[in-house]
Amino acid sequence: MKASRSLLSIILIIILVVSFTAMALAQDLEIIPIKMRARAKPPMENWRGLNFLVAEKDLNADLEALGDPRRVKVEIIQDNMEWGPLITEFVLSYGVGEAPDIWLTGHEYIGAQAEAGRIIPLGGMIEEFPIFNLVFDNLWVSTMYKGKIWGVPQDAEARPLYWNKTLLKKLGWSDEEIAALPGKIEKGEFTLYDMLETAKQAVDKGVVKPGNGFWTRPKDGPDFTPFYYAFGGETINPATGKLVYDKTAGLKYYKFFYEAAQEYGSMGCLGLDWSEAWHPGVISKVLFWVGGTWQWAEWAEKFLKDLGGEAYMWENFGFGLIPAAEKGGKPNSLTHPMAFLVSSQCKYPDLAVALIAKVTNYGPNTRHAIASTHLGILKGQTEYKFYKGFRLLSEALYMLDYTTFLPNSPDWGTYSRITYEAMAACVSGDFTPEEAVDFVVEELNRELGDKITIK
Amino acid sequence: MPYTFLSPSLVVVTLFFFIPLVMVFILSFTNLDMTNFGILKWWQPANWTLDNYVKIFTNRFFPRILKNTLIYVSATLIFFNVGMALVIALITTNINRRVGFAFRLIWLMCRLTPVVVYIMIWKALAGPAPMGVINKHILGPLGIGAGEYLLNANPWLFVILVNGFIGASFGMIIFSSAIEAIPKDYMIASKVDGASTWQTIRYITIPMIRWPLLFVTTYQTLSLLTSFEQIMLLTDGGPGLYETEVWSLTAYHRAFTSYFGNTQWGYGSAWAVILVTIGIVMAIVYLRVFKFNELIQEPKIDQL
Question: Which domains does chain B possess?
Answer without folding.
Answer: 70-245 (1.10.3720.10)
